[in-house]
Amino acid sequence: MSRDRPRRGVLPPAQENVEKLAKVVKDGNCYGAQQMYKSVSARYISAERFSDALDILQSGACIQLEYEQVVTCGAELAVLFVETLVKGKFPYDEDTLGQFHSCSVNFNPVNFLCLYAEIHLCSCQ
Q: pTM to 2 decimals?
């Protein structure tokens, strides 16, 4: 007797999660928000909703960087953003660069260079 797997719920529009997660960061729970950003974006990636996952990761990276969570949170989400670009086979164009650069203004130069090196290593594999 085989059991059918229960259907997963339909994912809401990404903006709903962006707003909820931003509130968690603003309330001071950066670590908790980080875990939620990672798990929520993973659900969108699994559903092959790469653009929505990118929106969530971009928002998360930007707000974490804004709240000076550079090394621990913002940079990690920025790397996940780039990995999602690769998984989703997004073209290398001005729109894609614009999305990434929107958060880079919150990096200090040393942290930005470290992230750039990590991204370059990721994209070469």
A: 0.76
